[in-house]
From TrEMBL:
It is an enzyme of class 3 (hydrolase). One of its GO terms (cellular component) is extracellular region. The lineage of its organism: Eukaryota, Fungi, Dikarya, Basidiomycota, Agaricomycotina. The active site is at 318 (nucleophile). InterPro entries: CBD, CBD_sf, GH, GH10, GH10_AS, GH10_dom. Residues 20-56 form the CBM1 domain. One of its GO terms (molecular function) is cellulose binding. Belongs to the glycosyl hydrolase 10 (cellulase F) family. It catalyses: Endohydrolysis of (1->4)-beta-D-xylosidic linkages in xylans. It holds the Pfam family Glyco_hydro_10. It comes from Jaapia argillacea MUCL 33604. Keywords: Carbohydrate metabolism, Glycosidase, Hydrolase, Polysaccharide degradation, Secreted, Signal, Xylan degradation. This is Beta-xylanase. It comes from the Eukaryota.
Length: 399
């Protein structure tokens, strides 16, 4: 920031195009920006990324004569690493560093170019298009076009594919939730859905989230249509149908809030043990990893080890680390550390096979629409510019 003398300010006032000040929250800099680069009273032009600076409230000041250069070297809110994420993940012994994606995003060519670089992402997951509402919208009628687009993209790019998901309480068509099926009917429906879905992608999927989010946070079972009708048996029905449909695919149960030792993590450990004891196929647990800046659990690594000690693999399947907006250099620096600790925990655990970010860019993150006032959770910003979090991922794999 430069403090301007009173006489220089008076001189500037005679030059209209220089003297104009941007209004609160307006753009005030970035590559190609030709408008005002100073802000109205009480606001400071703040670097966000190479393409965008914004007038945000000045912390505890009412100064009107401050100016902020947006052409100076980038502050600590940019990435500096030149390494590629999947390359460093593989060098650390992992199978992949991947990203979720979604069909509407695939018209964004700049986005797809980054997504399709298999040195950056060695794996992709469809965020929505393999879910029940997308794949069996009416009973017995299967529609795979959205999922096929993403499976074909993975194939073209030489990337692994994670299937997401067979059985979840959410994004269910009403024929499932309101059908009043008895246990025998619903058992056949679950078996047919998972068998047909997994069978359609036979040979193309590295791992399937066969069961998604079966537990409440206190470790009790989620009372959805499946549990209410079939009890816990829906889990083995789905897993057995999936194994029969694609014997080579790794079969996972996936959930959130499994990142520290908790009643929910204990419930998941006990479920895996009981499936193993009954001979039901189970190959992995997905730790989603929807986290908050500054709140990565210190027990993350030991929690991963709790699962791998059962003889199964783990993967971090939906990583993002959100913050209260607006993002600041301090929050971005903490986010970098948080990404590094999560990746470091996976690196340290042999049975942790890979990490998937729940889309790589803030442009397409699910967070702001779900958590009001929060966001900036991904390693690329909304202009597809890498954030410090990117360097945190690299450091997690390399240090
Ligand atoms: O498909 C409809 C479209 O027809 C309609 O016009 C539009 C209007 O809002 O909505 C579209 O559906 C949206 C859907 O994504 C597909 O874009 C839903 O509103 C929206 O709620 C849904 O959000 C998804 C969310 O799961 C649903 O719970 C997110 O994109 C997806 O990233 C998110 O992913 C979940 C994982 O599957 C499981 N773990 C948590 C994770 C984050 O919530």
């Amino acid at each position: 920031m430069i403090k301007l003398s009173t006489s220089f300010v008076a001189l500037l006032a005679l030059v209209p195009f220089v003297a104009a000040q941007q209004s609160a929250w307006g753009q005030c800099g970035g590559q190609g920006w030709t408008g005002a680069t100073t802000c109205v009273a009480g606001y400071t032009c703040t670097y966000n990324n190479a393409y965008y600076s914004q007038c945000i409230p000045s912390p505890g000041t009412t100064t009107t004569t401050t100016s902020h250069s947006t052409t100076s070297s980038a502050p600590a809110s940019s990435s500096t690493s030149t390494a590629k994420l999947n390359t460093v993940a593989k060098a650390a012994g992992k199978k992949y560093l991947g990203s979720a994606t979604d069909n509407p995003e695939l018209t964004d060519t700049a986005y797809v170019a980054i997504l399709s670089d298999n040195t950056m992402f060695g794996q992709i997951t469809p965020g929505n298009s393999m879910k029940w509402d997308a794949t069996e919208p009416s009973q017995g009628t299967f529609t795979f076009s959205g999922g096929d687009t993403i499976a074909n993209l993975a194939k073209q790019n030489g990337q692994l594919l994670r299937g997401h998901n067979c059985v979840w309480y959410n994004q269910l068509p009403s024929w499932v939730t309101s059908g009043n099926f008895n246990a025998s009917q619903l058992s056949a429906i679950v078996s047919n859905h998972c068998g047909t879905l997994v069978g359609h992608y036979k040979g193309q999927v590295y791992s399937w989230d066969v069961i998604n989010e079966p537990f409440n946070d206190d470790g009790t079972w989620r009372t959805d249509v499946f549990y209410n009708t079939l009890g816990t048996s829906y889990v083995s029905i789905a897993l057995q149908a999936a194994r029969a449909a694609d014997p080579a695919a790794k079969l996972y149960i996936n959930d959130y809030n499994l990142e520290s030792s908790s009643a929910k993590a204990t419930a998941m450990v006990n479920l895996v043990k009981s499936l193993q004891a009954s001979g039901v196929p189970i190959d992995g647990v997905g730790i989603q990893g929807h986290l908050i800046v500054g709140e990565v659990p210190s027990t993350f690594q030991s929690t991963l080890q709790q699962f791998t000690a059962l003889g199964i693999e783990v993967a971090i399947t939906e990583l993002d680390i959100r913050m209260t907006l607006p993002s600041t250099p301090a929050l971005l620096a903490q986010q970098k550390k948080d990404y590094q600790s999560v990746i470091g925990a996976c690196k340290a655990v042999t049975g942790c096979v890979g990490v998937t970010v729940w889309d790589y860019t803030d442009k397409y993150s699910w967070v702001p629409s779900t958590f009001s006032g929060q966001g900036a959770a991904c390693p690329w910003d909304a202009n597809l510019v890498r954030k410090p979090a990117y360097d945190g991922i690299v450091a997690g794999f390399t240090s």
